[in-house]
Amino acid sequence: MNARSSRYSFVMNRAQRSNTLDNKAQAQVPGTGLLGLARDALMLMRVHHWQKNILVFVPMLVSREFGMASLGASITAFLAFSLAASSAYVLNDLIDAEADRLHQFKRERPIARGAISRAVAIGLILGLAVAAFAVAALLPIEFVVVLGVYYCATCLYSVIVKRMLGLDVVVLALLYTLRVIAGDEAIGSDSSEWIIAFSLFFFLALALVKRFTELSYLLDAGGTRAPSRAYRVEDLRVMVPLAAASGFSAITIFTRFIGSEDVLLTYSHPERLWYIAPVLIYWLIRLMLLANRLKVRDDPVVYATGDLKSLLCGGAVAGILVWAW
What we know:
Layout: H1 2-27, H2 32-45, H3 58-62, H4 68-95, H5 97-100, H6 118-136, H7 141-159, H8 167-187, H9 193-220, H10 236-258, H11 276-292, H12 300-305, H13 308-324
Organism: Sphingomonas cavernae
Subcellular location: Membrane
GO biological process, one term: glycolipid biosynthetic process
């Protein structure tokens, strides 16, 4: 027993010395822990989702309100929305931490895997929200009001609405549309109601595709019901028809806009806008087919910004808009 105890003590002492050396080695690399925390914080803030807020530039481009003042206001609006969105993302991940640990992809989120503590997350939520409204204060009060509505709606979505069947996708579409309205208020322009109607139906289609993608991955993993969501895998059969109906309704609204009197206020050659319709039809069909093949893992808007053909479609639409001026 004495020999055994001696060997055990030797092994334990050696392990302790090894751990001490490892800790000293880590201490000699300044900033390693802070860099890791910063990386996880940026991941938690979903900085790569800030590209969704490019929508605040739409009113400036569509209404031809070009100029340094409009550009500066749009950039400020973009920053304010990005900070507010990040605050809401952190809140969402804090609430969903338990459910995310069971998810195929979401379990890698910083809070779910324990890389960010609850206290740090709460600090980020408050700090980002304060920063967002501090930046927003540089713009007209109407913009601040829209940002406030967006932030409250986003928080409400994270706490309650995302668990409500059908209402969740409607609110998601509204959140995207609010970005367009906010861009309008930031530069003080008066965008056509056609743009608002188009945005609502177009982003409703993308919200439905997002839910379809989540359910498709759930089915592929052998699940039956999405955690913290009201959807089940049997809902897949109606998701695509609903998304298609909403998407093509948006395109129909756009074609009606081409034939309206409002279009003459902005475009000298409105008939050229017809070329945008087939581009949108192609992009929407391709998106739904790729989602069905489990090729769209992320939010459709985020996916589009990293997809070459989607970027080419976006470039074509922008080119046609300029051509129609």
